[in-house]
Design a protein that fits this description.
Oligomer: single chain
Number of helices: 6
Structural class: alpha+beta
Radius of gyration: 19 Å
Helix content: 40-55%
CATH topology: Zincin-like
Largest sheet: 4 strands, mixed
Length: 145
């Protein structure tokens, strides 16, 4: 089928589209307490606990267990707000995990937060001193508890 015909079919509404489910987000105070406990036990003093907001979501089609959302510089300037992060756990996957695995998922998300707590996110790069090194250090400290 030519690209022209595919475009024409889309314009005429003849393609089937999968209906997306509605995602529901709810503040998760239990996750916030679990996160604060990890931050204190592992002495992650660069994390500003009061600037991380925790949510539990349902209905996501993502394969992720959890996600962290940063508040970039442009939003900080627009809203005249300090840097902040939203940590989302996807209930269908996260809630099935053991407490230890849940803690490690939260540590993984915290590893995305840079040491300067700027609102930016650290990517999954393999550079020296990057995301994976930080995560290994935090998990090793957790395993020693």
């Amino acid at each position: 089928m030519s690209i022209f015909r595919r475009v024409l079919r889309v314009r005429q509404g003849r393609t089937r589209r999968k209906k997306s489910k509605k995602i529901i987000w709810v503040k998760a105070n239990d996750i916030k307490l679990q996160l604060n406990e990890l931050i204190e036990k592992l002495n992650l003093d660069w994390v500003q606990k009061n600037q991380i907001y925790c949510f539990r979501s349902e209905g996501s089609s993502s394969r992720a267990i959890a996600r962290i959302w940063g508040m970039g510089k442009i939003w900080q300037l627009a809203l005249e707000s300090p840097p902040a992060y939203c940590l989302e756990v996807i209930a269908e996957r996260y809630d099935k995990l053991s407490k230890s695995d849940q803690d490690k998922v939260l540590l993984h998300e915290l590893a995305h937060v840079p040491k300067n707590f700027s609102g930016a996110l650290v990517a999954h790069t393999h550079s020296k001193g990057g995301f994976h090194d930080k995560l290994k250090t935090m998990v090793a400290a957790y395993d020693r508890l």
